[in-house]
Design brief:
A six-stranded parallel sheet has the order 2-1-3-4-5-6, with helices on both faces. By secondary structure, the chain is an alpha/beta fold. Helix content is 50%, strand content 14%. The N and C termini lie far apart (50 Å).
C-alpha cells in the first residue's frame, strides 16, 4: 500500500453507479486507493470498525439500513478526521444541506457531477477543511431563500432522509404510485413511509402535507 495515496471509501446502494464510479476513478487517478465500497450505512460503520479507515468518504445521502446523514453524525463523533463528501441525485434536498453542514461534512455534490470535478473535490477536501458545495446547489439554495424569506425553518427535522424525500414528492403532488416509480421502491414501502410521516408530523391529511411542504420547497 502506498501511504501517499488518498484512501477513499465510496458508499452507495446503487450497485451499478457504485461499481462504475470505482472503475472510472481507478482509471483516472493513480493517486487514489479505493479501500472499500459499502452498500449501506451500516456497512460503512462496519468497515471502519474493522480498521478500514479512509481519508475521504463519498457518501450517498439516501441509503438503506442507516442513511448517509446518520452515518455522518456518527462519524463526526467517532472519527472526526475522516473527510465526508455527500452525494445526492436531488438538487432540491434543501433541508439535507442544512443538516449535513452540522455533521462534519466538507463536501456536497450531485451524482451527475463530471468525474474530473468529483476527483478534484476528493483532493481538495483531503488537504483542507473548507466546505465545498457544488455551484448549482449553492444557486438552488439562494433561489430557495429568495422565495422563502420569512425566516421559518423546516419544522419536521426528525424525518429520516428517505421520509423527507417522500414528503418532498408529496408536496409536489405526486401519487403514491408515482413516488414508488420515481424512487424505484414498492408501493407498500411508499405507504409505510407516508404512514411514518403522518405519525411524526401529526398531520393526517395529504392535502395539508402538500400545503405545508410547498412552503419549504420549490414550486
Amino acid at each position: 500500500m502506498d501511504n501517499d495515496k488518498i484512501r477513499l471509501m465510496i458508499a452507495d446502494d446503487q450497485i451499478l453507479f457504485l461499481e462504475s464510479l470505482k472503475t472510472v476513478i481507478e482509471l483516472l487517478s493513480s493517486d487514489i486507493e479505493i479501500i472499500a465500497t459499502p452498500k449501506n450505512g451500516q456497512e460503512v460503520l462496519d468497515c471502519i470498525a474493522q480498521g478500514m479507515i479512509p481519508d475521504v468518504i463519498l457518501l450517498d445521502i439516501h441509503m438503506p439500513v442507516i442513511d448517509g446523514i446518520d452515518v455522518a453524525k456518527h462519524l463526526a463523533e467517532s472519527n472526526p478526521d475522516i473527510k465526508i463528501v455527500m452525494l445526492t441525485a436531488f438538487v432540491d434536498d434543501y433541508w439535507n444541506v442544512k443538516k449535513i453542514l452540522k455533521c462534519n461534512v466538507v463536501g456536497y455534490l450531485l451524482k451527475d457531477t463530471p468525474l474530473e470535478d468529483l476527483i478534484e473535490m476528493v483532493f481538495k477536501v483531503k488537504e483542507n477543511n473548507i466546505i465545498h458545495i457544488q455551484r448549482s446547489i449553492v444557486d438552488d439554495m439562494l433561489d430557495y431563500d429568495n422565495k422563502n424569506n420569512d425566516g421559518d425553518e423546516f419544522p419536521f427535522t426528525d424525518l429520516t432522509s428517505r421520509e423527507a424525500e417522500v414528503f418532498n414528492h408529496i408536496a409536489r403532488g405526486l401519487t403514491n404510485e408515482e413516488i414508488a416509480d420515481k424512487m424505484c421502491i414498492s408501493l407498500q414501502t411508499v405507504k409505510n413511509y407516508v404512514s411514518m410521516i403522518y405519525q411524526k408530523t401529526g398531520i393526517h391529511k395529504r392535502v395539508q402535507l402538500m400545503a405545508i411542504g410547498r412552503k419549504y420547497l420549490h414550486s
